[in-house]
Structures are given as C-alpha cells and as structure tokens.
Amino acid sequence: MSLGGGSKTQTVTTQSTSGAPAYAQPFLEFGLGEAKNIYQSEQPQYFPGQTYVDFSPQTEQALRQTETRALAGSPLRQEALGQAMSTVRGDYLGAANPYRDQAIQSAMEPVISSVGSAFSGGGRFNSGLFADALAKRAAEVAGNIGYADYGRERALQQSMIGAAPGLAATDYADIGQLMNVGAAREGMGQNILNDQINRFNFEQNLPAAKLSQYMANVAGGTVGSTGTTTQPVFSNPTANTLGALSTLAGIGQSAFGTGGFLRGVF
C-alpha cells in the first residue's frame, strides 16, 4: 500500500448572521417606519418669510434726502465756487472799489492841511502853484492806495489759484454721497437676490438631502451583521493514511492481541 503524496489545500467558507435582540425589534421597526414617513413627507420646508430686513422708515427717508441733496448740490458751495472763479479770472483787479474814494478822501485830509500850511504865507494859498502841489500830492495818495488794492487783490488771486484744486475736488463730495445711496440700495437688492437663490438651491437639493437622511436613519436602525469568513484548510494524504493505520492498529490490538492485526494487514 503506497503511503506517498504531498500536502493539499482546500478553502472553506463560513457564513454567519447576527440579528438585533428580540426586545429591540419593535423599536427598530418603529424607527424605520418613521424614517420612511419623514422621507415621504413635505418636510423640511424653507422658511416661508423673507430672510432679509427691509430699510427702516428713518433709513429710507435719510436715503431719499441724501439723494436729493446730492443731485441738487450745496448752494453755499456753488457761491464759493463762483467767487473763487471771479477771483481767479481777475474780475476784481479792475473793478471799482466802493470804499476807495472814501479811503482817498481820508488820506487827503492831512495832505491838504500840510500843503495849505506851506502856501498860506505870502498870499500863495489858492494860487496856481498851490493847486499844482495839491493835485500832485492827491495823485500820489490815490496811486498808493490803488497800488495797495491791486497788490492785495493779486495776492488773493494767487491764493485762490492754489486753493482751486481743492475746491474742484468738492464736486465729488455730492457724487460720493449719491454713490453711497446707490450702494445701500444695491446691497438691499443683493440681499433679496440671495434670498431667492437660497430658496432655489434648497428646493434643488431637498430630494437628495432627504434621501441621504433616510438612508442614514435606515442604517442607524439596523442592528446586527452578516459576515462571510474564508480560510484555508491544509491536508496531508500520507499523514492521514498513517493516522488511519494507527487507529486501525489500536483497534486490532484490542481485538486480537498485540501485533496480531498488523500482521494480518501486512
């Protein structure tokens, strides 16, 4: 009897299933039923009202007034720009000064007194020389006053030229206020649009969100597990044969005495 042969490998697959305890079954069935009811219901729903806050009456009034003022501009600013433009153009350089004659007259009083004193002796008062001298002095006084007025006005003109860019920039103050009003209204418009977009996205994502929640509830309510285990089983024909002969020998020894059975086999 041949005892040869190598090892052989076989694969054995074992399936096992474990379920929830009996006391938990009613609760699990209830939970699964409720998950299905929630999935088939109209819930959840988006908040039915608007999700943004309207302008208050005070804010709306302030916006309207700011817009009106920004469009009309400031009367004070317009007058200031007009005066500045006249000064820069030199309108006041050749304009009559309503106070110039009074200034000249006040300046001439001491001149007349001085010239009169100089020509009072010798009968020269009111003479031709007196008139010439008085006219010359009057021209000097008027020239000095006119020169001073011109110089002051030129100084003001130069100063206003330097201030002109700043005054011109005030044009943008009203424009900036108008832009602020527009930005506030655009912000409110964006809030309204965001509300509409969020509602749209909610409706679009609702079926998938409910299905995901339903599947999570179902998985969470399933207690127990089913598993499959696969493991190799090794066998050796020679070892198995020797084991079998050894067993038979033990049986024969018991039945026929020591060595009797093996002698009969071999």
Task: Write up this protein.
There is one protein chain. The protein is mainly alpha-helical and 266 residues long. The chain folds into 3 domains: 20-88 and 183-231, no CATH class; 90-169; 236-266, no CATH class. It contains 8 helices and 2 strands, in the order βααααααβαα. It has helices at 25-40, 57-72, 75-89, 100-119, 128-169, 171-220, 237-256, 260-265, and strands spanning 8-19, 224-235. A two-stranded antiparallel ribbon has the order 1-2. Helix 2 (57-72) runs antiparallel to helix 6. It starts with 7 loop residues before the first strand and ends with a helix. Residues 258-266 have low confidence and may be disordered.
Shape: rod-shaped
Characterize the main sheet: 2 strands, antiparallel
Strand proportion, as a percent range, falls in 5-15%
Indicate how many domains the architecture comprises. Answer: 3
Q: Looking across the biggest beta sheet, what order are the strands in? A: 1-2
Indicate the percent of residues in helices.
55-70%
**H/E order of the elements?**
EHHHHHHEHH
Number of distinct beta strands: 2
Poorly predicted segments: 258-266
The whole-number mean of residue pLDDT values reads 74
* Count of helix runs: 8
Determine Rg (CA atoms, Å): 59 Å
Distance between the termini: 9 Å
Class from secondary-structure proportions:
mainly alpha
User: What quaternary form is this?
Assistant: single chain
